[in-house]
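FAQ

Q: What does a record look like?
A: Structure on top, sequence underneath. For example:
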């Protein structure tokens, strides 16, 4: 008899005690993820910052407030989606994630994707985009397009923190808003489509980075 897959909550509880990399030595708490465990729209960022480390919830600082504001303009509440990061612990001084940290945390994100089973993933910034699409191409070239991600669709966009650095009228902020509007439209059309009993076979790993898809 096949083993029963554990729930997302069971995975979260185990992650709270994770010591797979050295980041556990300096964290206040693990920032696993938040939102609906049945969400069909999943946002994936980079790593927790100071506010996230203190509160134990992703995207609660200025970048998170911007993301929440843009989503609310489309009638989407944070409780309607799921938000996670590549890393579950804050890097010192908010530095970039290191390769060994990404690899140590990768199974947690992979299990989140499997358990939540979203129709669409939106990657925020370079780290989540490069990890999930398995590419070295930067976000400036990849953003705002649909890509096949195994059985799902993926749309990359800029990290809200990059938009904050560019200012409210900067090009990055405009692109972020446009990309999220596109993602909202895309998930609406995906929801309206009859979902097949069995999803398409996942693509080979080497196809992911270059497979820009045509949805409709």
């Amino acid at each position: 008899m096949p083993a029963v897959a554990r729930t997302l909550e069971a995975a979260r509880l185990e992650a709270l005690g994770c010591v797979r990399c050295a980041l556990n030595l300096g964290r206040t708490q693990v920032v696993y993820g938040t939102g609906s465990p049945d969400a069909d729209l999943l946002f994936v960022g980079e790593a927790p910052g100071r506010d996230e480390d203190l509160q134990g919830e992703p995207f609660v600082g200025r970048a998170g407030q911007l993301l929440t504001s843009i989503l609310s303009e489309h009638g989407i509440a944070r409780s309607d989606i799921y938000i996670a990061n590549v890393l579950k612990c804050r890097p010192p001084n908010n530095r970039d994630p290191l390769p060994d940290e990404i690899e140590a945390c990768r199974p947690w994100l992979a299990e989140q994707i499997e358990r939540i089973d979203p129709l669409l993933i939106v990657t925020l910034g370079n780290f989540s985009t490069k990890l999930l699409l398995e590419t070295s191409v930067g976000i400036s070239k990849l953003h705002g397009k649909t890509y096949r991600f195994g059985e799902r669709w993926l749309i990359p966009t800029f990290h809200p923190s990059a938009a904050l650095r560019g200012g409210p009228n900067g090009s990055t902020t405009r692109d972020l808003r446009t990309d999220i509007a596109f993602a909202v439209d895309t998930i609406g059309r995906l929801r309206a489509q009859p979902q097949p009993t069995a999803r398409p076979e996942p693509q080979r790993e080497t196809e992911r980075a270059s497979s820009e898809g045509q949805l409709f």
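Q: Is there anything notable about this one?
A: The two ends are 40 Å apart (CA to CA).
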